[in-house]
Structure formats: structure tokens, C-alpha cells
Amino acid sequence: MRDSTPRPGDRRLEESEREAGQVLPPPPGHPRFPLLDPMRAIAAISVMLVHVAIFSGGFGPWYKWVLAHLEIGVPFFFLLSGFLLYRPMLAARVSGLPAQRIRDYARNRFFRIFPLFWFILIVTAIVPGMYGAFTGNWWVYFGLLQNLPVYSPDGECVTNPFRCGIPPSWTLGIEVMFYFLLPFFAAGMTMIQNRFRSTPSDGFFSRWVKIEFAALLLFSAISFVIQSSSFNGGVDQWLLFSPIGRAWWFALGMVLAVISVRTAETGRDVALSRWGREHGGWCWLAAIGLYLFGTYVLFSHGPTLAAPVGDLNEYLLQYFFFGVISFFALMPAVFGQIGSGVATRVLAHPVPVRLGLISYGIFLWHYPVLVALNDLDATSWATSAQFPVMAIATFVLTVALSLITYYLLERPLMRWSRSRSKKRA
To answer: Quick one: which of 100, 265, 260 has its CA closest to 183?
Structure first.
């Protein structure tokens, strides 16, 4: 396993990584991937910027088209979950690393998602007055069920959905379902692969690797069928807003997990891992180039990844395209070594590392902050520079609130949850 820990002498980075290792450690006995923390920050800030653009006049001028698809942060998050959660399960089965107890996994996932979400949902129902938390449908919003056909929306959730709950949390419902289903997938793969033992002559693409890739390809194909079906509620809606409906994105992260585990097992690289390690800057250039090509050439100018409400062919192409871009963007963070190239040096800077620690708060706080600024008519503060003014104000206020809730709520609870896993280990 190649070392990706901070090099001695970089005190700020060492302190940031020490903090990150205490709050977001891997399961005991498994390696940590510190360069993925800043990728969370990039994902959260990109989602924030696309929402700022919506609130500050949309994407009309050509120079704002570059913002039109920054909801690509959503597949970033799904790939990160696929990699970080599946890798320990896979490594425990294949490499004999310690298996994480299901109760520890479930507890850590719960404390990662729900306490901060519930707190912000309650606070923002008071100021700026987001609808839902104090209504008869409160259980829908607290349970992250707002995507599913289990209730009838009412009040402002019908007349003004931009003030309903915390709108970006539609992705969290899918994430939580993924957390629930992933151990079952891992157990099923264990049963299948026990029938197909690898031999030393199998090379890098051993039998278990091929079986993993085949299963992930199958679920990815199913997800494209689901995404292309008519969106009429009922079963279609359940599937669309499920991990199976977004399996292409989760599967790409899990592919990275397979390659990472096999690389550690054999000590040999394949082209993807070697490129991620040695040419991280080129991976990022490829991701940026594909994003700009899609934004300026292929796609209409506006975020559409939540559901197929426009042109279906364009939506499916985006679903595929943004998964590939996210894959390239994550490669240097998964396979790179700190200080070995431009991409890893950027990710290893203490500022993105710190922002990565509060990225969940940034993701949850930014939208209610935007609503509050809109209520204050912030776009009129500088009519000729609406976007930069709104972006700066939103970022500053969001980071401030995220820091407060991180130190008062997130960090204590996550440290406590992780400490119980360590004690049992």
C-alpha cells in the first residue's frame, strides 16, 4: 500500500490530518485516504455555486454557462460513498483485514448523517422559515423520505418547493438507502465469490475482480433502464430515488475500491491506478475538459440531474458523462501520493483539508443561507455583480455556520461514535 500520509515538516497539514483522522477515521486496521476529504469540499462548494447562480439571475450570459452543471458535486458524493464504504468490506473479504462490525458501521453512518441534518432542519424552519419540519408531514422531512410517494405534499412544499425542508437533501435519502443496502450487496458477493477461488496465475484481473466488475456493470445497466423509464410516481419514483436508480455513480466508486484493494493485494498497478498516481494533473485536465465540452457543447444550460424532466436523451448522456468526469477527478485522490504532483499538492493544502472536514455542514447550510439572503434582497446590493456578491456572502456565512456546528455538534458526536469502534477493535 503506497503511503499517502502527510510528509514530516508540513505542520499545518499534519495538524489538519490529525484532526481529520480523529473525526473521520477508517475502520480499525484499514488505510485512510486523506486526499478524499478535500474532494468532499469541492463537491459541496460546487453544489453551493450552482444554487447561487440560480438565485442570482440564472445562467443567461455565456460566461455563467460554466456554472450550469456544477451539480456534478452530487455524483462526486456518490462515488466517494461507493469507494470509502465498500473498500473496507471488500478488503476484509479479499485481503483478510479486520471486518467492521455491522453495529459499528450502522452507528457511524447514523451519527454522520442525522444529528446535524435534524439540527439544521429545525433551526432553518425558524429562520429563514423553511417549510416542513413543524407540519403534519414532519416525519417525512426528518426521515429523508421527501423523494418518495409516501405522503401528499402541502403548504409551501406545493406552492414554493424552494422553501420546502432542505431541498438539496434529496440526495441524502439516496445515500442513506445505499448505506442500508451495501452490507447486503457485500454479503451476496461473498457468497458468489466463495464458489470461484482465484489462483496465483490469475494476474491482476483475478476471478474475484472479474466477478465484481460484472456485478457492478449489471447494476449500472439496470440504473440506466430505471433512469430512462417514464417518471410517473409509484414504483418508478421509488426506483429513481434509490441507490439502484443511481447505481452507475455508486458503481464507479466501487470500481475504484476494487482496483485499490487489488493493487494493495498484488503490489502491481493497472493503467488507471498508475495514471492516478503519476499523472494526477492530467486526470484533472481530462475531467475539466470533459466538463467544459459537456457544458458548452452537449448540454442545455441548467442543472437537471435530479430527475428526467427535460429531454430524456440529454439527461441520460449527462448521467453517464458526469459519472465519467467524477471518476477522473477522484483518481488522483485515491491513488496519488501527497506532494507527488499538482493535483495532490492542491488537495493536500490545509485549507481544502479543513473545508473537507466541514463539507457536510456546507452542503446543508448553504441553501437556507441563500434563502435568507434572498429574503434580504441581497441581489440588489450590487445589481451589476449579483453572482459574486451572493457567492461571497453565501460562502462566508455558510462556512461560519458550518464551523460552529462542526465544533459544537459534529465533531463530538463523530469522535464518540468512532471511539466505540476502536475500543471494540
So the answer is: 100
